[in-house]
Design a protein that fits this description.
The structure holds 2 protein chains of 2 kinds.
Chain A lengths: L1 E2 L2 E2 H23 L3 H5 L1 H18 L4 E8 L4 E7 L1 H24 L6 H20 L3 H19 L6 H32 L4 H4 L5 H4 L3 H15 L8 H4 L5 H10 L4 H13 L3 H24 L3 H22 L2 H32 L15 H15 L5 H16 L1 H23 L18 H19 L1 H17 L16 H18 L1 H15 L3 H23 L4 H22 L14 H19 L3 H21 L3 H24 L10 H27 L5 H12 L6 H9 L1 H27 L12 H14 L1
Antiparallel strand pairs in A: 1-2, 3-4
Chain B lengths: L3 H24 L7 H19 L1 H8 L3 H15 L2 H4 L9 E2 L2 E2 L2 E2 L2 E2 H25 L5
Classes of the chains: A mainly alpha, B mainly alpha.
C-alpha cells in the first residue's frame, strides 16, 4: 500500500504535522468551524488504521517506511501489530473528537489556530511513538511528544502557574527521554538490532545480557516519568493548567500512556524476570493507591480526574509487571476502557467549566436539568470507570481481577483498594455536579453547543457499545493487543456476562459495595485525607522546586567561579593550558625533537629571518600598545615572505591578508576597550606573563620541530598532485583541495566563520549597551562576563 | 586618519582592491587565489574605506547588512552541492559545463559557485565584525 511512492502509514504519521501547518490559516478563515475541516485528517488516519484490523487480528504484522541512515541502523520505519494498531486507533479516533471539542471549547479565543495546530503536532508525534519500528525513530517521536506537551501545557503562557507546569513537565518527561535514549542505545548494543520487530524476535538475548539491569533502569526511567509513576507523578496534576482539551487528550487518553506502551512493547523480551515482576508491581501498586487517595482530597473536577489517571497508570504498570496472561489481558482491556471513559470525563469536566464557570465540585449542584446531554455522558463514562456492567470497564475489571488473583494476594488487595477508591471518585465526579438542589454558579449554566458535547457523548457511548459487542471487539482489537504484549497469540475470548462464578466476580461485587459506601461518605474521606497530607507536608512537587533551586544555585556558583569576567584571567588560563599541553607530554614522555643542524640559507633568506626577529624585538620594546600591534604585523609579513620563498604562494597570500586584517581589527578592539595607550602593568604582573609567553613560544617551536622530523607520508599529497588536474580540472592544488576534494570540510569551516561572526557581533552589541545599566546584569550571566572587564579597565 | 591624501585616494584604492579580489577569486582554481583569499582582500578594501570615510558610507556602499551577505554566501555554498544529488551521485560532487561564449571556452562549475559562496561568507562575517568595531556612535 503506497501513496506518492511512500508507504501509507508513513503518510498517516506525517499527515497531522502537515495539517498543523495549515491549521492557523484554516481557523483564521472559518473561525471555530474550522474544527470540522481539520478533524477530517485524524478521521482519515483512523479509517486507514481500520483497514489493518482484520489482518492484524489474524496475527499478521506490517513493517513500512524507508531507510534513513542505514549505516548507523537509523531508519524511518513503522511497525503495526495488535498493540500499535489499537493504540494508534485510540490516538486518531479520540484525536478526531478532541479537535472538534477544541473547536467548541476555544471558540473565539484569539490563538485558537495555534492551539489546534499544537494538538495536531502532538497527535503526529504520538502516532509516531506507538507505531515506530526503529528504536531511534521511537525516541525522536517520544521527545516530540514531550515538547508538544510543553507547548500545550504552557499554552496560556501569560499565567505563572501554566509556565511552571509546562517547564516542570518538560524537565521531568524530557529527562526521562534522555534515560530512554540511553536504554534504547543499550538495547541496540545488547541485541544487535535496531528495529523493534527484530528485537522482539531475539528471545532471551536481552534478559541474559549483562546490560539487562542498566537497560531496565533506563527504560523504567523513561516510562515512569512519562507515565507519571511515583515519585515522578507530580507533573501530571500540575499539567491540568492546560486547557481541558489538552488534559482530555494528552494527560488521560494518550501521551501519559506512552510509558505504559513502552513497557508493554518490551514485555515479551524484557519481562518475566525477577526484577521486572518486583519493580513494576511495586511502583505501579504504590502509585495506584497514592493516586486514588490523593484524588479523594481534591474538589476540582479536573484534579480529581488527574489523580485517578495517575492511579490508573499505576494499575496498568502493576498489571504489566504481574506477568500472568490474564493480567496482561486485563491491562489491555483496561487501557482501552480508560482511554474511552477518562477522555469522556475530562471533556465533560471541561463542558461544566465552560458553561457553569467553575469546576469546583463543592460549588456545583443540580445541573442535570440544565445540561442533560452532558449529564448522560458523565453517567455513562463514570459507570464504565466504576466497573459496573454492562460497560467495558466491567469487562476490564473482571479480567484484571482474574489476573491479579493468579498473581498473588497482595496485588489483588492493592487492586481492590484502588478500584474502590477510584469508583468513589468516579461517582463523585459524575454525580455531585448534577444531582441535588441547583446551586448558583458564576455563569448561568445551559447545554453547550454540539461541538462541546459530541466528543464526551461519543466516547461514553462507545464504552457501552464496546462491551455489548465484546464478541467482536475482543477478538478483533483487544485480543491481538494482549497477544502483542505477552508475545503469545491471544484470541480475545472475553465476555460481558461472567463465564463462571469465581473470585473475580466476588471481588467485583465487593468493589461495588465498598465504592458506593465511600461515595456516600466522600466529604468525610476528603477531610481525613486532607488532614493526612497536610500532616506530611512535603511532597515531590515541592521537592522538584527545591531541586531546581539547588541546581540554579550550584550553576551560579560554578559560573561565577569559572567566569570571573576578567580578560586577563581568561587569557592566562588559556595560554597556561596550551603551554602545559605542549610541554608536559614532550618532557614527560621524552619526545623532544633532536636539535637540527644549521640550514644553509642564502643571504636574502637570512635577511627575512632577521626581519622576523626585529619585528619581535620591536613588539617588546614598543612604548605604546598601538605600536606593539603594528610591530606584530612586521613579524607576520616576514613569515608570509618566507612562505613565498619556499613555494607556497597561496599560503603566503593568505598570510599577508590575515596579518593586515589582524592588525586592523586588533587596533580597533584596542580602541573599543578604552585601554590606556601605554602598558601600565607593574613588574610583578609582567614577569608571570613573560614566563607564560615564553613557555607557549617554546612549546610551539618544539612541536613544529618535532613534526618536521617525523618521516613525511606523501600518499595524500601525491594523490592530490596526480588527480587535481585530471579529476578536478584545476591546476592550483591548494584551491582544488579546499573547494573540491575537501569541499565538505570547507562547508563546515565557512559555517563556523559565519557563526563566529554572529557571536562576535552579538558580543560587541552587548558591550555597546552593557556599561550603561550594570545593575540589570544578573548573576553569572553572559552579560557580566563581557561588560565587567571594561568597567574594571575603565576604573583604573 | 583624516589626511586629505588618504581620504581622496581611499575610494579608488577600495574599488581597485575589490576588483582585484574578484580577479583573485575567479582565477583561484588554476593560479594562486580563491574564495578565501579573495574575500580577505575585499574585507581589507572595505576596512580601508571605513577607516578613511567612516562606517556609514561603507554600509551604504554594500547595501546589505554584512551578516546577510555572509548568510547568502553560506546558502550559495550549500546549494552548490545540491545539483549532484539530482544526478544521483553524492552531495557536493563537482559538475562542470563548458559553454562557448563569444568564441571563448568558459569553464563553469558548481565548484566555482561554492568558491564564490566562500568569498561572500568571508567578506560578510569579517566585515560585519570590523564595521561593528569601528562604529563608535552608539557607545
Amino acid at each position: 500500500m503506497a501513496l506518492f511512492g511512500v508507504d501509507d502509514t508513513v503518510v498517516a504519521v506525517l499527515a497531522p504535522f502537515a495539517a498543523a501547518l495549515f491549521a492557523p490559516a484554516v481557523v483564521r478563515k472559518l473561525k471555530h468551524n474550522a474544527a470540522w475541516v481539520l478533524a477530517v485528517v485524524p478521521a482519515i488516519i483512523f479509517l486507514h488504521l481500520c483497514r489493518y484490523v482484520g489482518a492484524v487480528s489474524s496475527g499478521e504484522t506490517f513493517t513500512e517506511g524507508f531507510s534513513w541512515v542505514p549505516a548507523y541502523g537509523v531508519n524511518f520505519t513503522f511497525y503495526l501489530d495488535g498493540l500499535s494498531v489499537l493504540f494508534a486507533m485510540i490516538i486518531s479516533g479520540i484525536g478526531t473528537l478532541i479537535i472538534l471539542y477544541a473547536g467548541g471549547y476555544m471558540k473565539g479565543h484569539a490563538q485558537q489556530g495555534r492551539f489546534i495546530s499544537f494538538l495536531l503536532l502532538f497527535m503526529g508525534s504520538m502516532l509516531g511513538v506507538v507505531t515506530a519500528n526503529n528504536l531511534i525513530t521511537l525516541f525522536i517521536f517520544w521527545e516530540l511528544t514531550s515538547i508538544t506537551s510543553f507547548l500545550l501545557i504552557g499554552f496560556d503562557h501569560l499565567r505563572v502557574a501554566s509556565r511552571r507546569a509546562a517547564m516542570q513537565a518538560l524537565v521531568v518527561t524530557g529527562g526521562g527521554g534522555l534515560a530512554l535514549l540511553a536504554g534504547v542505545l543499550m538495547i541496540i548494543s545488547a541485541s544487535g538490532q535496531s528495529e523493534l520487530s527484530d528485537v522482539l524476535t531475539t528471545g532471551d538475548t536481552l534478559r541474559n545480557s549483562a546490560l539487562y539491569a542498566p537497560i531496565l533502569i533506563m527504560i523504567l526511567g523513561g516510562a515512569f516519568t512519562k507515565s507519571a509513576q511515583f515519585p515522578f507523578h507530580f507533573w501530571l496534576p500540575n499539567a491540568m493548567e492546560a486547557p481541558t482539551p489538552v488534559s482530555a487528550f494528552l494527560h488521560s487518553a494518550t501521551m501519559v500512556k506512552a510509558g505504559v506502551y513502552l513497557l508493554m512493547r518490551l514485555n515479551p523480551v524484557m519481562g518475566d524476570t525477577m526484577a521486572w515482576e518486583i519493580i513494576l508491581p511495586l511502583f505501579g501498586g504504590f502509585t495506584l493507591i497514592m493516586g486514588t487517595v490523593l484524588a479523594l482530597r481534591q474538589t476540582d473536577l479536573k484534579l480529581m480526574l488527574a489523580y485517578t489517571t495517575v492511579a490508573s497508570l499505576g494499575l496498568l504498570v502493576m498489571l504489566t509487571g504481574a506477568g500472568t496472561e490474564a493480567a496482561l489481558e486485563g491491562a489491555a482491556i483496561y487501557l482501552f476502557a480508560h482511554a474511552l471513559f477518562k477522555g469522556s470525563l475530562f471533556m465533560m469536566a471541561g463542558c461544566i467549566d465552560h458553561e457553569a464557570g467553575t469546576r469546583d465540585v463543592t460549588k456545583l449542584g443540580g445541573l442535570r436539568k440544565a445540561m442533560p446531554i452532558t449529564f448522560a455522558a458523565a453517567v455513562l463514562a463514570a459507570l464504565s470507570m466504576s466497573g459496573l456492567p454492562p460497560f467495558i470497564g466491567f469487562v476490564a475489571k473482571e479480567v484484571l481481577y482474574d489476573g491479579t488473583w493468579d498473581a498473588g494476594l497482595i496485588i489483588t488487595l492493592v487492586a481492590l483498594v484502588g478500584n474502590v477508591l477510584m469508583m468513589a471518585t468516579a461517582l463523585g465526579v459524575a454525580f455531585k455536579p448534577f444531582l441535588g438542589e441547583p446551586v448558583e454558579t458564576p455563569k448561568h449554566a445551559h447545554e453547550g453547543p454540539v461541538l462541546l458535547w459530541l466528543g464526551p457523548l461519543t466516547l461514553a457511548v462507545l464504552g457501552l457499545l464496546a462491551a455489548l459487542a465484546v464478541g467482536w471487539t475482543g477478538p478483533a482489537l483487544l485480543g491481538p493487543m494482549a497477544g502483542a504484549i505477552s508475545g503469545e497469540p491471544n484470541h480475545g475470548d472475553f465476555h460481558l456476562i461472567p463465564a463462571h462464578i469465581g473470585a473475580p466476580l466476588f471481588l467485583s461485587l465487593v468493589t461495588m459495595a465498598l465504592g458506593a459506601a465511600v461515595y456516600f461518605r466522600l466529604e468525610y474521606a476528603r477531610e481525613k485525607v486532607d488532614r493526612l497530607i497536610t500532616a506530611i507536608g512535603w511532597g515531590p512537587d515541592r521537592g522538584f522546586d527545591q531541586l531546581i533551586t539547588l541546581i540554579v544555585k550550584i550553576a551560579g556558583k560554578v559560573t561565577t567561579y569559572a567566569q570571573p569576567g576578567r580578560m586577563q584571567t581568561y587569557m592566562s588560563t588559556v595560554f597556561i593550558i596550551v603551554a602545559a599541553g605542549l610541554l608536559i607530554p614532550m618532557f614527560g614522555f621524552g619526545e623532544l625533537p633532536s636539535l637540527p643542524g644549521m640550514p644553509g640559507f642564502t643571504f636574502y633568506e637570512w635577511l627575512v629571518l632577521s626581519l622576523v626577529v626585529i619585528g619581535i624585538v620591536a613588539v617588546l620594546a614598543a612604548r605604546t600598545r598601538l605600536i606593539a600591534i603594528v610591530s606584530l604585523g612586521i613579524q607576520g609579513f616576514a613569515v608570509a615572505v618566507i612562505y613565498m620563498l619556499f613555494g607556497a604562494p597561496d599560503l603566503s597570500f593568505t598570510q599577508f591578508m590575515v596579518e593586515t586584517l589582524s592588525v586592523v581589527i586588533l587596533a580597533l578592539v584596542m580602541t573599543r576597550l578604552n585601554l590606556t595607550a601605554k602598558d601600565n602593568r607593574p613588574f610583578r604582573e609582567t614577569v608571570p606573563h613573560m614566563v607564560i609567553a615564553a613557555a607557549v613560544g617554546l612549546g610551539f617551536g618544539l612541536l613544529l620541530m618535532a613534526v618536521t622530523q617525523v618521516p613525511f607520508d606523501a600518499r595524500l599529497s601525491e594523490f592530490f598532485a596526480a588527480n587535481s588536474r585530471a579529476i578536478a580540472h584545476g591546476r592550483n592544488i591548494v584551491n582544488v583541495i579546499i573547494v573540491d576534494f575537501r569541499g565538505f570540510d570547507t562547508l563546515g569551516e565557512i559555517s563556523v566563520v559565519m557563526v563566529t561572526g554572529l557571536a562576535i557581533l552579538a558580543l560587541i552589541r552587548i558591550r555597546a549597551r552593557g556599561p550603561k545599566k550594570p545593575e540589570d546584569v544578573s548573576i553569572g550571566g553572559p552579560l557580566q562576563a563581557v561588560s565587567d572587564p571594561v568597567n574594571e579597565e575603565a576604573a583604573r | 586618519m583624516n589626511t586629505v591624501i588618504f581620504r581622496t585616494i581611499a575610494p579608488f584604492l577600495t574599488a581597485l582592491m575589490i576588483l582585484f579580489s574578484i580577479f583573485v577569486l575567479l582565477r583561484g582554481h588554476n593560479e594562486p587565489g580563491g574564495g578565501f583569499i579573495g574575500g580577505l582582500i575585499a574585507v581589507s578594501a572595505l576596512a580601508i574605506y571605513g577607516i578613511a570615510c567612516g562606517v556609514q558610507p561603507v554600509r551604504r556602499a554594500i547595501r546589505f547588512h554584512p551578516m546577510s551577505i555572509s548568510a547568502f554566501g553560506l546558502l550559495m555554498s550549500c546549494l552548490s552541492g545540491l545539483p549532484s544529488m539530482l544526478t544521483g551521485v553524492g552531495f557536493m560532487k563537482a559538475h562542470w559545463i563548458e559553454p562557448e561564449i563569444f568564441g571563448v571556452d568558459l569553464a563553469l562549475s558548481t565548484v566555482m559557485v561554492f568558491d564564490i559562496g566562500v568569498y561572500f561568507v568571508v567578506v560578510g562575517s569579517i566585515t560585519s565584525i570590523a564595521l561593528a568595531l569601528e562604529e563608535r556612535e552608539d557607545d
